[in-house]
Amino acid sequence: MNKFILLTTLVLTVTSLQAQKKKDLLAEIDKLRNELRTTKNELAETSKQISVAESKAKSMEAQVKSLKETNESLLANMGSFTELSKKKAENSEKLLKTVQEKDKQLKTINDEITKKDSINLAALTIFKDKIGGDANITVKQGVVYMVIPNANLFGDPDKSYKLEDKAKGVLGKIAGVLNQKKDLHVIVEGNSNALKFDGKPLSDNWDLSSLQAAAVARALQKDFKVDPKRIEVVGKSEYGMESIETVTRIIIDPNFDNFYQTVKNNMKNDKG
């Protein structure tokens, strides 16, 4: 009897222990299942975060690549801009140098023109002082004009091309100034308006005006020692007339050859 009770108790105890172990095992299984579920959820969330992070990383890589390309482009453009700026600076410097050279050239020309005008004004003053009322003296178009009636030079301006003795007075005064001012160029311009040439060894007013101008030039050369290389003779016939009265014009101007050569030399010196 006691053995039966003991066996029964043992069976019940074993059964109870097995039930408890089963219960504990089931609880452990549930716990593991919950932990597994949680781990899966965490793994899914982690995978999601990794995916997002990878997307962000790719996006950042693309941005970095784009920024790198942009930076390289900017550096290239900056290099081009620097080169362009350098060329523009060089061109500006060349242009400034050219402008400065042109300014010097213009100043040289202006100084020579001013000098030429000053010589003409000085010549006008001297001629007026020396000649007085023997000739009408003016400055016209930048040169000195002396106008002498042909009647005062040739007596009968429609017939003669031989100078009268009284003409030597005014021509001597003109020559005196010319011999003092060696840089003055002289143009003797004849104007005649004769209507008939019957019995005269002349064809027309071209002949007469040229011969009258030549007579004046010849007197300046032979009688008063003016260098003939400084003298030009022009016959205007009746086509250069300013009035009915025929006249001889003596035009005084600095030697243009010397003037232009001086300007040319000064411009060369400015460039050098």
UniProtKB/TrEMBL annotation:
One of its GO terms (cellular component) is membrane. InterPro entries: Bact_OuterMem_StrucFunc, OmpA-like, OmpA-like_sf. The keyword Coiled coil applies. Residues 141-258 form the OmpA-like domain. Residues 22-112 form a coiled coil. PROSITE patterns: OMPA_2 (PS51123). Keywords: Coiled coil, Membrane. It comes from the Bacteria. The keyword Transferase does not apply. PANTHER family: LIPOPROTEIN YIAD-RELATED, STATOR ELEMENT OF FLAGELLAR MOTOR COMPLEX. This is Chemotaxis protein MotB. The lineage of its organism: Bacteria, Pseudomonadati, Bacteroidota, Flavobacteriia, Flavobacteriales.
